[in-house]
């Protein structure tokens, strides 16, 4: 499989021996000791190149973030120019920089109509920490300091800091360190998982309404005087690209309005074109109060995130005086300059229109074709992301035993075949750069089918 030369091998081994000192995120150190990390050395467009010279199709856009693909000259140039002009200055105590100012104005222009303000930070996790502080601050200023509880969903991903992992609904993360008080979780609108649990078909629309009703039930149970906000991704990404039934969001919106609680739409993955709209909020017409953003904001070239604050919430926060919150790198000028270049490139190339009208429908059709594979129980997705659920019996909603690790096995075949497709449990998830072409989607279809075949042979 590898076209490695002796010289390349020694290079790989060199990096791997140095990497023994690296504590990796979301990795089992024992497994890494057995089989060291693959070293990615360079990338261009939608392809990565590893230290053995393999060319790999990156259908995950890094980690859901390299939306405009690798090697974009505009982004590289923007970083180069800004780092010479002003590599750093902060946004504390009534100062700003041209990139931070310009980026905040651009975001006001492209976002839904009731958003005109952004607080900057360096990641999605920091954005969600900021969300929690803003939500609490808001209710305090509204004279309702008892409204502290944030409702989230099981299997949600909102980041990895203490606050963000608490807001997230990943049990295996909560098991390492617990969760902070005042965060509770309700069931996710995962139609496929529910059908597998029951071993039979259920009505999709009805299930969507029930999943939304769980939020109202939770509010009633806690007492509305204690509930501050509901947080959710428009479409769960890291949870396995879970597309809610069409009945879900209208009902959730109605419930948040009815009880007067804040709605936080985590746009860290859905934002910046992933759904074929600028924001997932546009796709579902959510009208949220806060929108954490990151990832695609800079196409991952430099770390930058933020929280977009709706006018109504900002009015209250602004009336409260000093905001005692900020990060050294809030509005970092080089990161902001790259984000501006990224957004301008997206606008100039009309990438969001291309995704919505051309490449995403083609990509979704390809996913549905892969759904015909005997190993795939469901193919789903919206815009430029989706998932393939691996099952033991596709006609009766029977999953593999979790010890079989079907998803991980399939992912290993993908790695061997130079395709990046991630496994979330037994869901194979895909989220390619938005610039992926029809030809590259075809290439993905062929490679993915081959890897599904290999996994099918290995698992049955
Ligand atoms: C990735 C992600 C985060 C966390 O972002 P980091 O930059 O990794 O801290 C938060 N929310 C969602 C929806 C994400 O996908």
Give the SSE layout.
Layout: H1 6-19, H2 29-34, E1 40-44, E2 47-50, E3 55-58, H3 61-64, H4 73-85, H5 98-110, E4 115-121, H6 124-141, E5 149-153, H7 162-167, H8 171-174, E6 183-186, H9 191-198, H10 204-222, E7 227-232, H11 248-259, E8 262-265, H12 280-284, E9 290-293, E10 305-310, H13 311-319, H14 333-348, H15 351-370, E11 376-382, E12 385-390, H16 406-416, E13 419-420, E14 422-424, E15 427-430, H17 438-459
Parallel strand pairs: 3-13, 5-6, 5-7, 7-8
Antiparallel strand pairs: 1-2, 2-3, 4-10, 9-10, 11-12, 12-15, 14-15
Helix pairs in contact: 4-14, 5-14, 6-13, 10-11, 15-17, 16-17
The structure holds pyridoxal-5'-phosphate.
């Amino acid at each position: 499989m590898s076209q490695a030369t002796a010289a390349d091998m020694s290079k790989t081994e060199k990096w791997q021996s140095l990497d023994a000192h690296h504590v990796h995120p979301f990795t089992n150190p024992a497994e890494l000791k057995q089989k060291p990390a693959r070293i990615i050395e360079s990338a261009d467009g939608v392809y990565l190149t590893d230290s053995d010279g393999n060319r790999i199709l990156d259908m995950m856009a890094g980690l859901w973030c390299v939306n405009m693909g690798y090697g974009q000259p505009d982004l590289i140039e923007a970083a180069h120019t800004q780092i010479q002009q002003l590599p750093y200055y902060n946004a504390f105590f009534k100062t700003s920089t041209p990139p931070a100012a310009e980026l905040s104005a651009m975001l006001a222009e492209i976002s839904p109509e009731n958003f005109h303000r952004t607080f900057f930070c360096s990641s999605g996790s920091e954005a969600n920490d900021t969300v929690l502080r803003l939500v609490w601050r808001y209710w305090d200023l509204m004279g309702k300091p008892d409204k502290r509880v944030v409702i989230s969903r099981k299997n949600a991903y909102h980041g990895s800091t203490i606050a963000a992992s608490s807001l997230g609904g990943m049990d295996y993360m909560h098991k390492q360190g617990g969760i902070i008080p005042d965060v509770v979780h309700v069931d996710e609108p995962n139609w496929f998982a529910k059908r597998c649990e029951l071993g039979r078909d259920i009505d999709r629309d009805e299930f969507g309404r029930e999943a939304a009703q769980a939020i109202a039930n939770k509010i009633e149970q806690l007492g509305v005087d204690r509930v501050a906000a509901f947080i959710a991704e428009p479409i769960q990404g890291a949870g396995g690209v879970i597309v809610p039934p069409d009945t879900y969001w209208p009902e959730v919106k109605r419930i948040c309005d009815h009880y007067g609680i804040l709605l936080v739409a985590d746009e860290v993955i859905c934002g910046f074109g992933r759904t074929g709209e600028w924001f997932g909020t546009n796709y579902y017409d959510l009208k949220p109060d806060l929108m954490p953003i990151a990832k695609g904001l800079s196409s991952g070239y430099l770390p930058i995130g933020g929280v977009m604050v709706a006018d109504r919430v900002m009015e209250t926060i602004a009336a409260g005086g000093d905001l005692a919150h900020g990060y050294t790198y809030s509005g970092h000028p080089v990161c902001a300059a790259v984000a501006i270049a990224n957004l301008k490139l997206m606008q100039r190339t009309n990438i969001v229109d291309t995704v919505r009208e051309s490449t995403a429908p083609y990509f979704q059709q390809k996913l549905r074709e892969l759904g015909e594979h005997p190993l795939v129980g469901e193919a789903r997705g919206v815009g430029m992301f989706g998932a393939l659920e691996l099952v033991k019996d596709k006609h009766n909603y029977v999953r593999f035993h979790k010890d079989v690790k079907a998803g991980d096995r399939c992912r290993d075949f993908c790695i061997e075949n130079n395709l990046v497709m991630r496994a979330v449990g037994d869901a194979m998830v895909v989220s390619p750069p938005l610039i992926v072409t029809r030809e590259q989607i075809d290439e993905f279809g062929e490679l993915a089918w081959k890897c599904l075949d290999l996994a099918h042979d290995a698992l049955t």
